TrEMBL record:
This is Uncharacterized protein. Residues 186-214 are annotated as: Disordered. Residues 5-117 form the WDHD1 first WD40 domain. GO terms for molecular function: chromatin binding. It comes from Phaedon cochleariae.
Length: 401
């Protein structure tokens, strides 16, 4: 269910001693100190229930809008209606705001998304607020001094009784130069606030392939498991050296060794009894080990980056830097897409199971630990089952590679 009225309330802006809220076709003002009812504002020309009330920036006026597009402005002190107007379509208003300059302008939006402006909502309001003078100002205006005939001299002639020195007046009343005072105000206003202390950045464990060796080694192992070994020759930082990938199987009766040129600078690799997988940051290449199957490859979008790969008897999985894991069958058909809530650390696959380790937020009572969640996912027919969770904590800055 949804209400028809917004019922937006507002505090008096200067000191917050009053709170106004709409109640049917009237506006109630409460005294915040004891929450007693201070005043009730009513307009006889409006019968529709009010929805929004808001004080003017000076706090001396308050406006309310009804569900039929009525705008009513009261003077809070006298509780008299200062202005009444109506929307041209007589539709409800969903938002309004006084101009902070205090010039009487009001900006509003209706339920149809149209923007409107009310000008001169209160007569006598200028950029400095309502044009009202207090008693002292009125007396000062009535007792203005006539300086006609007074000789204003630029030099400081103390002997001349009719000479008025501006410099002497400045010294007497401690008045500085206008340019100096303006420069002080600009300097004070431009002074930036005290910066907040920066939250220390905890170094996270980077993603890594299980059983792989660091990239700076030559040769290096991309993968070593119970099926075979993937070995990479040629350092990626040296473009002059030839690069190749060698695959050796522990059981030579299952498959003979393989050698391939590494023109694509593959740095990731995984092997199972069904497929050989190699990849770089933008492309994955899968070679099914069955004799009748064809090799296939896939390039990801420009804004995506491959960080991890895993191969099993039934699945080909590759993780992205945007926390997305794509799962495909050995022959290239997409099996599913998984999103994890943190940077992926590592993953491994076995038959229809995929195990993923990723970072999660730290505990409030353990700021010196770096939590890592391990999740087991099971793919069965057209369904995906997420299994148990394991929470591990490691010391920040520790590298598991």
């Amino acid at each position: 269910m949804s209400g028809t009225a917004i019922c937006r309330i507002d505090f008096e802006p200067s000191e917050g001693k009053e709170l106004a809220y709409p109640d049917k076709n009237q506006v109630i003002i409460l005294n915040v100190s004891d929450w007693s009812e201070k005043a009730t504002l009513i307009c006889n020309e409006v019968s529709a229930p009010y929805s929004i009330v808001q004080y003017s920036p000076c706090g001396k006026f308050i406006i309310a809008t009804s569900l039929e597009g009525d705008f009513v402005v009261w003077e809070v002190g006298t509780q008299e209606v200062a202005n009444v107007s109506k929307h041209t379509k007589s539709i409800a208003i969903c938002g309004l705001m006084w101009n902070p300059k205090g010039n009487g302008e009001i900006v509003y939006t209706d339920v149809e998304g149209q923007l409107g402006i009310i000008t001169e909502s209160v007569k006598g309001m200028t950029n400095d607020g309502p044009e009202q003078m207090n008693t002292d100002e009125m007396e000062l205006a009535d007792n203005d001094v006539d300086f006609t005939g007074v000789n204003f001299e630029e030099d400081n002639d103390e002997d001349n009784e009719n000479a008025v020195s501006l410099e002497q007046l400045k010294k007497q009343y401690n008045l500085g130069e206008p340019d100096d005072e303006l420069q002080k105000l600009e300097t004070a206003s431009s002074r930036s606030p005290t910066p907040r202390p920066r939250t220390p950045q905890v170094p996270l464990q980077p993603s890594f392939m299980p059983s792989s060796t660091p990239e700076h080694l030559d040769p290096r192992y991309l993968c070593w498991n119970d099926v075979g070994v993937i070995r990479c020759y040629g350092n990626n930082s040296d473009e002059s050296t030839s690069k190749s990938i060698e695959v050796e199987f522990h059981d030579t009766t299952f498959h003979s060794s393989m050698m391939m040129q590494n023109y694509q600078d593959y740095t990731l690799g995984s092997i199972s009894k069904s497929a050989l997988v190699v990849a770089n940051s933008s492309q994955i290449n899968v070679i099914p080990l069955a004799a009748s199957s064809k090799e296939w490859s896939l390039k990801v979008e420009e804004n995506e980056e491959i960080t991890l790969v895993a191969a099993s008897e039934n699945l080909i999985c590759f993780a992205m830097a945007n926390y997305i894991i794509r799962v495909a069958l050995v022959y290239g058909s997409q099996r599913g897409v998984i999103s994890v809530p943190g940077p992926i650390v590592s993953m491994a696959s076995f038959k229809n199971f995929l195990m993923v380790a990723y970072h999660t937020s730290g505990k409030l009572n353990s700021p010196d630990l770096q939590p890592i969640i391990i999740v087991l996912t099971y793919f069965f027919l057209n369904a995906i089952f997420i299994g148990f969770f394991i929470l591990n904590n490691i010391t920040p800055g520790i590298n598991c590679i």
